[in-house]
Amino acid sequence: MIVKQLIDFVKCVKFDRLGVFKYSREENTPAANFKNQIDNKIKQKRYNKIMEIQQQIAIEKNKSYIGKNIYVIVDEVDNNYAFTRSQYDAPEIDNQIIIKDNNLKTGDIINCKIKKAYEYDLLGER
């Protein structure tokens, strides 16, 4: 029942960002000694279900950026690509906006137009 409530909650709220973690026993914590621990296969199944739902939410939200201009900061430049993020994205955790441009450098803040959306990344251009 609790799992269905969680699934319904995630579908209803439609989080912009959602981190999902499987419980793991931590030594010297009260919960580590609880009886009736959930089997790892069940944890993985629940994790996969929530992440599947969130992926669909994430692609819908990312598609809403297509055609819009946003400011981004360049985190990394590799060959002809700049890996950037918006003010709403944590480095190495949230969405990246990938821009094909070899004239950018780390730390640059630029305005870019979003051209394409994926579950967790966007493609932009200057």
Estimate percent helicity: 25-40%
- Ends distance: 48 Å
Written as H for each helix and E for each strand, in order along the chain, the element string is HHEEEEE
| Number of DSSP-assigned strands | 5
What count of structural domains? Answer: 2
The coarse silhouette is elongated
Contiguous helical run count:
2
- Approximate strand percentage: 25-35%
Question: What topology, given as strand order, has the largest sheet?
Answer: 1-2-3-5-4
Which structural class matches the secondary elements? alpha+beta
Radius of gyration: 19 Å
Assembly state of the chains shown: single chain
In this structure, how is the largest beta sheet organized?
A: 5 strands, mixed, barrel
Describe the overall structure.
With 126 residues, the protein is α+β, with helices and mostly antiparallel strands. It folds into two domains: 2-63, no CATH class; 69-125, OB fold (Dihydrolipoamide Acetyltransferase, E2P). Helix content is 29%, strand content 27%. The chain has helices at residues 2-13, 40-63; strands at 69-78, 81-85, 96-100, 109-117, 121-125. It has a five-stranded mixed beta barrel with strand order 1-2-3-5-4. A hairpin with a 2-residue loop joins β1 and β2. The termini are far apart. The mean pLDDT is 93.
Give the SSE layout.
Elements lengths: L1 H12 L26 H24 L5 E10 L2 E5 L10 E5 L8 E9 L3 E5 L1
Parallel strand pairs: 3-5
Antiparallel strand pairs: 1-2, 1-4, 2-3, 4-5
